């Protein structure tokens, strides 16, 4: 029996969601904010980049062919974060999450042995989050994808307690993937909105979950952080120092912040083999999962090669390549997965 290679960070584009919100009050303002945050140079690149990848983002046949080329057996597919639309009112938000969940489930159902899916929840309306999670699970999705914050709400907000409780109880996967950084125009050149913004947002969101005690109250939560958790895992020593020396920093959580890293999951998409080795060291090889950000340009077209470049032990490499995710996603290992990875061939 060969452990499958599992990519937990792969996206789908949902044109039907964009058609749904087109013309709604608030869309123009949301687009203007996105333009300010990214700047004109980034927007000029983003459009053509996405258009070149539309088939990979929407067509199951094209997706599976690309997966075969990468040596990936299974993808955990989540909507493009551009579909969060946290600006929508309650009525529109419910329509967005239902349509996104249904469209993602339909896409994955075309290749059920190779595709698993995640839905969306409207973080801007905490009262809808449990219902949205239940809707996703009812469609056979494994959980939901969320951003690092919603307007005027951090993930530590008590209003989300029912959501965290239900996610823990149900065993749902919660994939933390930021969209937009609140540093705004400070990052509007040189694509800093992504290169600096995404890891910053990951670090802030995870710090809220740690320091507020959310992870104390919900130790069984299956939370996967994109982009290797951003800056937090490699700079967690500063958090530990603050927790031990300042009463305000240590007031909300029971243990050293670094101890909670072993309670979370992280994808491997850090773009540096030494950073990946450090992530494995601080979080544990059993908490790191292969991730590619398929098929966007800030991802990797050779996720197994990027993993191999970290020169992990064979046991750790195979755990990250797919063993950990196979357990997390509860994959049927009796299935005859099509791809038999030649690890040496994938060295970059």
TrEMBL record:
A GO CC term assigned to this protein in UniProt: cytoplasm
Domain Amidohydrolase-related: 6-331
Biological process (GO), any one: secondary metabolic process
Name of the molecule in the record: Amidohydrolase
Molecular-function GO terms, alphabetical: carboxy-lyase activity; hydrolase activity
Entry keyword set: Lyase
